Amino acid sequence: MKTLKIAIQKSGRLNEKSVEILKNCGLSFENYKSSLISTVTNFPLEILFLRDDDIPEYVQDGIADLGIVGENVIVETKAEVDYLQKLGFGKCTLKIAVQATSGIQNLEELNGKAIATSYPVILEKFLQEKGIKSDIRTISGSVEIGPGLGLSDAIFDIVSTGGTLKSNGLKPFADVMQSEAVLIGNKSIADNPEVAELLQRIRSVLSAKSNKYVVLNVSKDNLQKVVDLLPGVKSPTVVPLFEPNWVAVHSVIAEEDFWDKINSLKAAGAEGILVMPIEKIIR
Ligand SMILES: Nc1ncnc2c1ncn2[C@@H]1O[C@H](COP(=O)(O)OP(=O)(O)OP(=O)(O)O)[C@@H](O)[C@H]1O
Ligand SMILES: O=P(O)(O)OC[C@H]1O[C@H](OP(=O)(O)OP(=O)(O)O)[C@H](O)[C@@H]1O
Ligand SMILES: [Mg+2]
């Protein structure tokens, strides 16, 4: 059996959630901060802790078989890797921003202006598509202070809440790319059975996270209306209550339309609704 290697971020925005998803897959390992490699004791896997910028290339070159990294970094490094699974965390947008007081109104006004960024490849491609010629100034961090220091007229960087832009007197100007953390794989590992097993575990953890387990009581007169609202994994489970003419319905509902569903269930006659988290869904 081949021991796989997965590269995750050593510290930063993606570290904690990357460790959490692997632990939720039932993998046992020490998350030492001092060591750059950790061995999983109950699965043929080693975890490499790296700077996120290096992860796509490590995976492309087969030094790591798998990696967890933001889509923005994959696109920026132009690495040739397989996208195996979006992971639902590290969600952000890459935006061009300008000083809140600047009179810049439209993209054409960026012609000849300096834009500071840590993502020159993504920015260059966007500007080229729009036919804009700007002076791209590549810096490795703290991009948002560029305009205030007179280094640039605009910036291109990651935005999530917008708090960093605001506190530096900047305002968003154009959205260029959405990003989230993804599981990537080396091009040659698609048929590896251990990769398939790990992917199945990750998908079952993600699916459980985006669903809730629901138990409710309903009189048999309203049962069909309630069941019509509940898909379940296959179909809902219906069990009799001690109270004549009443049943309990067990089912699974999606987190995204959770409140709409609960309100519809109540309107259809559901009572005593219990909602519980699910640990895993194995399909
Ligand atoms: N504010 C944010 N909200 C959500 N996701 C973010 C945010 N900032 C960054 N990300 C995502 O997390 C990734 C890692 O961000 P982080 O700031 O930890 O990177 P870094 O400073 O380059 O880290 P490293 O030391 O590993 O090079 C980004 O590439 C992006 O995909
Ligand atoms: O819109 P916001 O919610 O304010 O997030 C955006 C900020 O988050 C990231 O930096 P991070 O805080 O990860 O620090 P870093 O610059 O050291 O990577 C990014 O580079 C932005 O500066
Ligand atoms: Mg980095």
UniProtKB/TrEMBL annotation:
It is found in: Cytoplasm. Catalyzes the condensation of ATP and 5-phosphoribose 1-diphosphate to form N'-(5'-phosphoribosyl)-ATP (PR-ATP). Has a crucial role in the pathway because the rate of histidine biosynthesis seems to be controlled primarily by regulation of HisG enzymatic activity. The keyword Iron does not apply. This is ATP phosphoribosyltransferase. GO terms for biological process: L-histidine biosynthetic process. Feedback inhibited by histidine. Residues 208-280 form the Histidine biosynthesis HisG C-terminal domain. GO terms for cellular component: cytoplasm. It catalyses: 1-(5-phospho-beta-D-ribosyl)-ATP + diphosphate = 5-phospho-alpha-D-ribose 1-diphosphate + ATP. It comes from Pedobacter miscanthi. Residues 51-203 form the ATP phosphoribosyltransferase catalytic domain. Its main location: cytoplasm. The keyword Magnesium applies. InterPro entries: ATP-PRT_HisG_long (IPR020621), ATP_PRibTrfase_cat (IPR013820), ATP_PRibTrfase_CS (IPR018198), ATP_PRibTrfase_HisG (IPR001348), HisG_C (IPR013115), N-reg_PII-like_a/b (IPR011322), N-reg_PII/ATP_PRibTrfase_C (IPR015867). Keywords: Amino-acid biosynthesis, ATP-binding, Cytoplasm, Glycosyltransferase, Histidine biosynthesis, Magnesium, Metal-binding, Nucleotide-binding, Transferase. The lineage of its organism: Bacteria, Pseudomonadati, Bacteroidota, Sphingobacteriia, Sphingobacteriales. Its cofactor is Mg(2+).
